[in-house]
Protein backbone atom coordinates (compact mmCIF):
# COMPACT_ATOMS: atom_id res chain seq x y z
CA UNK A 1 0.00 0.00 0.00
CA UNK A 2 1.04 3.53 -0.65
CA UNK A 3 2.20 5.63 2.31
CA UNK A 4 -0.57 7.86 3.68
CA UNK A 5 0.38 11.33 4.85
CA UNK A 6 0.01 11.43 8.59
CA UNK A 7 -2.27 14.15 9.85
CA UNK A 8 -2.78 16.05 13.07
CA UNK A 9 -6.30 17.01 14.05
CA UNK A 10 -7.50 19.85 16.24
CA UNK A 11 -10.91 21.34 16.86
CA UNK A 12 -13.97 20.09 15.01
CA UNK A 13 -15.61 22.56 12.63
CA UNK A 14 -19.17 23.29 11.60
CA UNK A 15 -19.90 25.78 8.83
CA UNK A 16 -23.62 26.47 9.31
CA UNK A 17 -25.14 28.44 6.41
CA UNK A 18 -28.60 30.00 6.86
CA UNK A 19 -30.92 32.09 4.77
CA UNK A 20 -33.29 34.71 6.16
CA UNK A 21 -37.00 34.16 5.77
CA UNK A 22 -37.59 37.83 5.07
CA UNK A 23 -41.34 37.35 4.65
CA UNK A 24 -41.64 35.95 8.17
CA UNK A 25 -39.22 38.53 9.59
CA UNK A 26 -41.21 41.38 8.07
CA UNK A 27 -44.52 39.85 9.20
CA UNK A 28 -43.35 39.67 12.86
CA UNK A 29 -44.26 42.58 15.10
CA UNK A 30 -41.67 44.83 16.77
CA UNK A 31 -41.82 42.96 20.05
CA UNK A 32 -41.29 39.55 18.46
CA UNK A 33 -38.31 40.91 16.55
CA UNK A 34 -36.88 42.47 19.71
CA UNK A 35 -37.17 39.15 21.58
CA UNK A 36 -35.47 37.36 18.69
CA UNK A 37 -32.59 39.85 18.65
CA UNK A 38 -32.16 39.71 22.45
CA UNK A 39 -31.91 35.95 22.37
CA UNK A 40 -29.45 36.13 19.53
CA UNK A 41 -27.35 38.55 21.58
CA UNK A 42 -27.37 36.13 24.52
CA UNK A 43 -26.36 33.31 22.24
CA UNK A 44 -23.53 35.43 20.85
CA UNK A 45 -22.30 36.15 24.39
CA UNK A 46 -22.13 32.41 25.05
CA UNK A 47 -19.88 31.94 22.01
CA UNK A 48 -17.59 34.63 23.34
CA UNK A 49 -17.36 32.87 26.70
CA UNK A 50 -16.41 29.63 24.94
CA UNK A 51 -13.68 31.50 23.08
CA UNK A 52 -12.38 33.14 26.24
CA UNK A 53 -12.22 29.75 27.94
CA UNK A 54 -10.18 28.45 24.94
CA UNK A 55 -12.82 25.80 24.28
CA UNK A 56 -13.57 26.86 20.75
CA UNK A 57 -14.12 29.80 18.47
CA UNK A 58 -16.99 31.22 16.41
CA UNK A 59 -17.26 33.84 13.67
CA UNK A 60 -20.29 35.04 11.74
CA UNK A 61 -20.19 36.40 8.19
CA UNK A 62 -22.83 37.49 5.70
CA UNK A 63 -22.92 35.49 2.48
CA UNK A 64 -23.17 37.47 -0.73
CA UNK A 65 -25.43 35.97 -3.41
CA UNK A 66 -28.37 33.58 -3.24
CA UNK A 67 -26.64 30.53 -1.74
CA UNK A 68 -27.29 31.79 1.83
CA UNK A 69 -27.60 35.04 3.82
CA UNK A 70 -25.08 34.33 6.57
CA UNK A 71 -22.74 31.66 7.89
CA UNK A 72 -21.80 30.79 11.45
CA UNK A 73 -18.44 29.04 11.56
CA UNK A 74 -17.96 27.18 14.83
CA UNK A 75 -14.86 25.37 16.11
CA UNK A 76 -15.36 23.16 19.16
CA UNK A 77 -13.54 20.40 21.03
CA UNK A 78 -15.95 17.58 20.14
CA UNK A 79 -18.64 16.72 17.61
CA UNK A 80 -21.13 16.72 20.50
CA UNK A 81 -20.16 20.32 21.32
CA UNK A 82 -20.80 21.24 17.69
CA UNK A 83 -24.19 19.54 17.76
CA UNK A 84 -25.04 21.36 20.99
CA UNK A 85 -24.26 24.76 19.49
CA UNK A 86 -26.23 23.90 16.36
CA UNK A 87 -29.22 22.78 18.47
CA UNK A 88 -28.99 25.84 20.70
CA UNK A 89 -29.23 28.07 17.64
CA UNK A 90 -32.16 26.07 16.26
CA UNK A 91 -34.01 26.57 19.54
CA UNK A 92 -33.69 30.36 19.49
CA UNK A 93 -36.64 32.50 18.45
CA UNK A 94 -34.41 34.07 15.81
CA UNK A 95 -33.92 30.68 14.08
CA UNK A 96 -37.64 30.66 13.34
CA UNK A 97 -36.97 33.39 10.82
CA UNK A 98 -34.19 31.49 9.06
CA UNK A 99 -33.98 28.45 6.82
CA UNK A 100 -31.10 26.02 6.50
CA UNK A 101 -29.05 26.63 3.38
CA UNK A 102 -25.95 24.37 3.65
CA UNK A 103 -23.64 22.92 6.25
CA UNK A 104 -20.18 21.41 6.37
CA UNK A 105 -18.65 19.21 9.06
CA UNK A 106 -14.88 18.77 9.30
CA UNK A 107 -11.91 18.95 11.66
CA UNK A 108 -8.93 21.32 11.63
CA UNK A 109 -6.11 19.39 9.95
CA UNK A 110 -2.39 19.75 9.45
CA UNK A 111 -0.51 17.19 7.38
CA UNK A 112 3.11 16.18 7.72
CA UNK A 113 4.19 16.85 4.12
CA UNK A 114 6.38 19.75 5.15
CA UNK A 115 6.95 18.84 8.80
CA UNK A 116 10.46 18.59 10.22
CA UNK A 117 11.65 15.04 10.69
CA UNK A 118 12.28 13.87 14.20
CA UNK A 119 10.29 16.70 15.76
CA UNK A 120 7.24 15.94 17.89
CA UNK A 121 4.77 18.43 16.41
CA UNK A 122 2.63 18.49 19.55
CA UNK A 123 5.60 19.95 21.46
CA UNK A 124 5.59 22.91 19.08
CA UNK A 125 3.28 25.63 20.48
CA UNK A 126 2.83 27.17 17.00
CA UNK A 127 1.40 23.90 15.71
CA UNK A 128 -0.86 23.46 18.70
CA UNK A 129 -2.15 27.02 18.17
CA UNK A 130 -2.88 26.24 14.51
CA UNK A 131 -4.86 23.15 15.47
CA UNK A 132 -7.03 25.11 17.91
CA UNK A 133 -7.14 28.54 16.32
CA UNK A 134 -9.06 31.60 17.45
CA UNK A 135 -10.83 32.42 14.18
CA UNK A 136 -9.59 35.68 12.67
CA UNK A 137 -11.99 38.63 12.48
CA UNK A 138 -10.89 39.70 9.01
CA UNK A 139 -13.33 41.64 6.87
CA UNK A 140 -13.98 38.78 4.39
CA UNK A 141 -14.37 35.02 4.41
CA UNK A 142 -14.21 32.55 1.51
CA UNK A 143 -15.24 28.91 1.96
CA UNK A 144 -15.24 26.00 -0.47
CA UNK A 145 -14.96 22.23 -0.23
CA UNK A 146 -12.50 20.26 -2.37
CA UNK A 147 -11.18 16.82 -3.27
CA UNK A 148 -7.94 15.47 -4.63
CA UNK A 149 -8.65 13.58 -7.85
CA UNK A 150 -8.76 9.77 -8.03
CA UNK A 151 -8.87 9.11 -11.77
CA UNK A 152 -6.84 6.53 -13.64
CA UNK A 153 -4.14 8.86 -14.93
CA UNK A 154 -4.48 11.51 -12.29
CA UNK A 155 -4.79 9.75 -8.97
CA UNK A 156 -3.31 11.73 -6.08
CA UNK A 157 -3.59 8.73 -3.78
CA UNK A 158 -1.43 6.53 -6.03
CA UNK A 159 1.49 8.98 -6.12
CA UNK A 160 4.50 8.23 -3.96
CA UNK A 161 5.04 10.18 -0.76
CA UNK A 162 8.06 11.89 -2.38
CA UNK A 163 6.05 13.02 -5.39
CA UNK A 164 3.26 14.37 -3.19
CA UNK A 165 5.69 16.06 -0.85
CA UNK A 166 7.47 17.89 -3.64
CA UNK A 167 4.16 19.09 -5.10
CA UNK A 168 2.95 20.19 -1.67
CA UNK A 169 6.17 22.17 -1.27
CA UNK A 170 5.34 24.14 -4.40
CA UNK A 171 1.76 24.60 -3.11
CA UNK A 172 3.05 25.85 0.23
CA UNK A 173 5.44 28.32 -1.49
CA UNK A 174 2.56 29.96 -3.34
CA UNK A 175 0.54 30.01 -0.14
CA UNK A 176 3.35 31.61 1.79
CA UNK A 177 3.63 34.46 -0.70
CA UNK A 178 0.17 35.51 0.59
CA UNK A 179 1.34 35.64 4.21
CA UNK A 180 -0.30 38.57 5.96
CA UNK A 181 -2.87 38.96 3.18
CA UNK A 182 -4.76 35.66 3.42
CA UNK A 183 -5.11 33.40 6.44
CA UNK A 184 -6.13 29.84 5.56
CA UNK A 185 -7.62 27.10 7.71
CA UNK A 186 -7.70 23.64 6.15
CA UNK A 187 -10.21 21.26 7.68
CA UNK A 188 -10.30 17.56 6.80
CA UNK A 189 -13.67 15.95 6.13
CA UNK A 190 -12.96 12.44 4.86
CA UNK A 191 -15.58 10.31 6.62
CA UNK A 192 -17.49 13.39 7.80
CA UNK A 193 -18.90 15.18 4.80
CA UNK A 194 -19.26 15.04 1.02
CA UNK A 195 -15.81 16.36 0.10
CA UNK A 196 -12.33 15.60 1.41
CA UNK A 197 -11.42 19.08 2.72
CA UNK A 198 -12.98 22.38 3.55
CA UNK A 199 -10.90 25.43 2.65
CA UNK A 200 -11.68 28.55 4.71
CA UNK A 201 -9.83 31.73 3.84
CA UNK A 202 -9.90 35.07 5.67
CA UNK A 203 -8.68 38.41 4.26
CA UNK A 204 -9.22 42.15 4.62
CA UNK A 205 -9.18 42.52 0.83
CA UNK A 206 -11.55 40.07 -0.90
CA UNK A 207 -9.59 40.34 -4.17
CA UNK A 208 -6.74 38.45 -2.51
CA UNK A 209 -8.99 35.33 -2.54
CA UNK A 210 -9.35 35.59 -6.30
CA UNK A 211 -5.63 36.15 -6.78
CA UNK A 212 -4.57 33.29 -4.50
CA UNK A 213 -7.08 30.74 -5.81
CA UNK A 214 -6.29 31.72 -9.41
CA UNK A 215 -2.54 31.46 -8.90
CA UNK A 216 -2.95 28.03 -7.30
CA UNK A 217 -4.93 26.82 -10.33
CA UNK A 218 -1.65 26.91 -12.27
CA UNK A 219 0.18 24.87 -9.66
CA UNK A 220 0.18 21.12 -10.29
CA UNK A 221 -1.56 20.11 -7.03
CA UNK A 222 -4.60 22.21 -7.97
CA UNK A 223 -4.29 22.24 -11.77
CA UNK A 224 -4.08 18.49 -12.06
CA UNK A 225 -5.51 17.04 -8.87
CA UNK A 226 -7.90 19.63 -7.43
CA UNK A 227 -11.68 19.25 -7.70
CA UNK A 228 -13.78 22.01 -6.19
CA UNK A 229 -17.30 22.43 -4.83
CA UNK A 230 -19.31 25.63 -4.50
CA UNK A 231 -17.63 28.81 -3.35
CA UNK A 232 -19.13 31.04 -0.66
CA UNK A 233 -17.91 34.57 -0.02
CA UNK A 234 -19.06 36.94 2.70
CA UNK A 235 -18.21 39.83 4.96
CA UNK A 236 -17.78 40.03 8.72
CA UNK A 237 -20.79 40.41 10.97
CA UNK A 238 -20.70 41.56 14.56
CA UNK A 239 -23.71 42.20 16.77
CA UNK A 240 -24.00 45.77 15.46
CA UNK A 241 -23.77 45.00 11.76
CA UNK A 242 -26.14 42.05 12.13
CA UNK A 243 -28.77 44.33 13.67
CA UNK A 244 -28.18 46.74 10.82
CA UNK A 245 -28.70 43.93 8.29
CA UNK A 246 -31.96 42.94 9.99
CA UNK A 247 -33.36 46.46 10.42
CA UNK A 248 -36.54 47.03 8.40
O1 LIG B 1 0.40 23.91 6.65
C1 LIG B 1 1.31 24.58 6.13
O2 LIG B 1 1.40 25.82 6.17
C2 LIG B 1 2.34 23.83 5.39
C3 LIG B 1 2.15 23.90 3.94
C4 LIG B 1 0.73 23.56 3.49
C5 LIG B 1 0.08 22.32 3.50
C6 LIG B 1 0.58 20.97 4.02
C7 LIG B 1 -0.18 24.52 2.94
C8 LIG B 1 0.07 25.88 2.81
N1 LIG B 1 -1.33 23.86 2.57
C9 LIG B 1 -1.22 22.53 2.91
C10 LIG B 1 -2.19 21.53 2.74
MN1 LIG B 1 -2.90 24.67 1.53
N2 LIG B 1 -4.45 25.50 0.56
C11 LIG B 1 -5.44 24.79 -0.11
C12 LIG B 1 -6.21 25.72 -0.88
O3 LIG B 1 -7.89 26.55 -4.30
C13 LIG B 1 -6.98 25.69 -4.35
O4 LIG B 1 -6.33 25.48 -5.39
C14 LIG B 1 -6.66 24.85 -3.13
C15 LIG B 1 -7.31 25.34 -1.84
C16 LIG B 1 -5.72 26.99 -0.63
C17 LIG B 1 -6.21 28.30 -1.20
C18 LIG B 1 -4.61 26.83 0.27
C19 LIG B 1 -3.84 27.87 0.77
N3 LIG B 1 -3.77 22.84 1.40
C20 LIG B 1 -3.36 21.70 2.03
C21 LIG B 1 -4.33 20.65 1.81
C22 LIG B 1 -4.27 19.21 2.33
C23 LIG B 1 -3.57 18.41 1.25
C24 LIG B 1 -3.30 16.98 1.55
O5 LIG B 1 -3.12 16.59 2.72
O6 LIG B 1 -3.22 16.22 0.55
C25 LIG B 1 -5.31 21.20 1.00
C26 LIG B 1 -6.57 20.51 0.48
C27 LIG B 1 -4.95 22.56 0.76
C28 LIG B 1 -5.67 23.43 -0.04
N4 LIG B 1 -2.00 26.52 1.73
C29 LIG B 1 -0.83 26.83 2.37
C30 LIG B 1 -2.64 27.72 1.45
C31 LIG B 1 -1.83 28.81 1.95
C32 LIG B 1 -2.20 30.29 1.87
C33 LIG B 1 -0.71 28.25 2.52
C34 LIG B 1 0.47 28.96 3.18
C35 LIG B 1 0.23 28.98 4.65
C36 LIG B 1 1.29 29.73 5.41
O7 LIG B 1 2.48 29.51 5.16
O8 LIG B 1 0.89 30.55 6.25
TrEMBL record:
KW RNA-binding (keyword) present: no
Positions bound to Fe-coproporphyrin III: 130, 144-148, 171, 184, 222
Keywords: Heme, Heme biosynthesis, Iron, Metal-binding, Oxidoreductase, Peroxidase
EC number: 1.3.98.5
Pathway terms, separated by semicolons: Porphyrin-containing compound metabolism; protoheme biosynthesis
GO biological process, one term: heme B biosynthetic process
Cofactor mode of binding and number, as noted: Fe-coproporphyrin III acts as both substrate and redox cofactor.
Gene Ontology MF annotations: heme binding; metal ion binding; oxidoreductase activity, acting on the CH-CH group of donors, oxygen as acceptor; peroxidase activity
Highest taxon listed in the record's lineage: Bacteria
Active site: 144
Reactions listed under catalytic activity: Fe-coproporphyrin III + 2 H2O2 + 2 H(+) = heme b + 2 CO2 + 4 H2O; harderoheme III + H2O2 + H(+) = heme b + CO2 + 2 H2O; Fe-coproporphyrin III + H2O2 + H(+) = harderoheme III + CO2 + 2 H2O
UniProt KW Lipid metabolism keyword: no
Cofactor: Fe-coproporphyrin III
UniProt record similarity statement: Belongs to the ChdC family. Type 1 subfamily.
Alphabetical list of HAMAP family matching this protein: Coproheme_decarbox_1
Function: Involved in coproporphyrin-dependent heme b biosynthesis. Catalyzes the decarboxylation of Fe-coproporphyrin III (coproheme) to heme b (protoheme IX), the last step of the pathway. The reaction occurs in a stepwise manner with a three-propionate intermediate.
Protein name: Coproheme decarboxylase
Organism in which the protein naturally occurs: Paenibacillus silvae
Organismal lineage: Bacteria, Bacillati, Bacillota, Bacilli, Bacillales
The gene coding this protein: chdC
Amino acid sequence: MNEAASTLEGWYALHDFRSMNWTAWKAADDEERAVALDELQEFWNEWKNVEQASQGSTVVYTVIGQKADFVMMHLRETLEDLKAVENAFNKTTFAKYTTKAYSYVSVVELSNYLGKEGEDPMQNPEIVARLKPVLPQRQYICFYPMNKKRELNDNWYMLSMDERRSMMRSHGMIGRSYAGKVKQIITGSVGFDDWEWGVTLFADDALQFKKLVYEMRFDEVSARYGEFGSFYVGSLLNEGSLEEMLKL
